[in-house]
Amino acid sequence: MDTLLLRKYDVPVPRYTSYPTVPYWDNTPGEAEWKNKVKSSFDQDDGISLYIHLPYCEKLCTYCGCNKHITKNHKVEAPYIDTLIQEWSMYLALFDKPPTIKELHLGGGTPTFFSPEELERLITSITRHAQVPADASFSFEAHPSSTTFEHLDTLHRLGFRRISIGVQDFSPIILEIINRQQTEEQVEIVTQQARALGYDSINFDLIFGLPLQDKSAIRSTIKKVKRMRPDRIAFYSYAHVPWIKPSQRAYSEKDLPLGEEKRALYELGRQLLEDAGYAEIGMDHFALPEDELYQSYEAGSLHRNFMGYTPHTTRLSIGLGASAISDSWDGFVQNEKKIADYQARIESGEFPFFRGHTLTHEDENIRQHILNLMCRHETNWAHPEQQTDALFAGLDRMKELERDDLISFSHTRLQVTKKGLPFIRNICQALDARYWAKRPEGALFSQAV
């Protein structure tokens, strides 16, 4: 890693889970308009993606940036599942035929906060009025300390074949400071049980840049990962945003590896994973060659949505639950973040979103180019429909990136160089017309690296 480049480009930038990014949503569709967008998108595609947000956790992990609600009261399970089922029925009413679910993901929070019985009630209610093809991808996020054999067995019986285990790091000292109560043994038990039941893709979530984390911690964690050998690994950068997530003030910034020190942790982890046979995919993701994610990357069909990288591309993604985001490709909406507000809106018969964005033609164009960069590290504009004034303005902003050898141009093609891969978010930012039209005055985004 070039130290001067790192210092130059390690600035606050969006993560580009969407374009426009959420702070720049400025044109929320009305309910009637959103229904029309959903119906139109549904009619243009042969399948949908479904994300279900299960926000409850028994304990607060202080590093976490997700929308969650901390409680040990499991009486909240049934009413929340009831509301999810009711919201799904509102979407079903918009369709003139049963939807085909290409992918379904349970996220959180902690999905395994919910009992196997309640999860089964949820999934059977979802799939009862839908088509589920043989190659559908059903996945869930698993906390090692709360995922039981019964969870794994029940969800496998319901069609789940992929599990994402929240490891973060194996160091007891690091786990203690981030209040993540789990053990190496629990991770290994969940991994082994999932394999024995027939889960064919096991993912480990790891984080670099955590408080007290150093190279020895990375080496130790990757050594244990190699032994358990998950099929995929998400190696995320810790996003320190205490102005948004006050729980992150549980430790001091002095405890955090920053800048060059932080990036060195990723570079070390990447090298160790590649030595173990994993290939780097997209941004911060790794997979073994036999995994479907790697194969879609090699085939050029990798896709990215609010659930992360996926081999499935759908025009319509529906998010159920508090804070969940839905995407009709030409529009976004986000549900109420507070559980009580979300449930009250559903109870009143309303779609429960509180903000959103209707994409313009320019938005859709820039969105596709950013998606290309995130998934394939290149984009092109050979055809007139791929061109807008905003694209050319963004390309003009890339001159310094080109001088620094982070990108290369041909007449109608842009490629990210190997040197530029760590700065993919900076490259996307150059195309971000809405960011440059209204640059933030205060802290808004996490650091690029």
Explain what you see.
It is a single chain. The protein is α/β, with parallel strands linked by helices. The chain has two domains: 1-20 and 360-449, Arc Repressor Mutant, subunit A; 25-318, pyruvate-formate lyase- activating enzyme. Helices cover 37% and strands 20% of the residues. It has helices spanning 3-9, 31-44, 77-92, 116-127, 149-157, 172-177, 184-197, 215-228, 259-275, 292-299, 339-347, 361-376, 389-396, 399-403, 424-431, 433-437; strands at 48-54, 56-57, 69-70, 101-108, 137-142, 162-168, 201-208, 232-237, 279-281, 285-287, 303-305, 308-310, 316-320, 325-327, 331-335, 353-358, 378-380, 407-410, 413-416. The strands form five sheets. It has a nine-stranded mixed beta sheet with strand order 9-10-8-7-6-5-4-1-13, sandwiched between helices. A three-stranded antiparallel beta sheet has the order 14-15-16, with helices on one face. α3 packs parallel to α4 (116-127), α3 crosses α11 (339-347) and α5 (149-157) runs parallel beside α7. The N and C termini lie close together (11 Å).
Structural class: alpha/beta
Number of helices: 16
Report the C-alpha radius of gyration, rounded.
21 Å
Strand segment tally = 19
Distance separating the two termini: 11 Å
Strand arrangement in the largest pleated sheet: 9-10-8-7-6-5-4-1-13
| CATH topology annotation of the largest domain | pyruvate-formate lyase- activating enzyme
Give the fraction of residues assigned to helices. 25-40%
Average the pLDDT over all residues and give the rounded result. 94
Proportion of strand residues? 15-25%
Sheet having the most strands: 9 strands, mixed
CATH superfamily of the largest domain: tm_1862 like domain
Query: What is the count of distinct domains?
Result: 2
CATH class assignment of the largest domain: Alpha Beta
Q: Which outline best applies?
A: globular
Low-confidence stretches: none
CATH architecture of the largest domain: Alpha-Beta Horseshoe
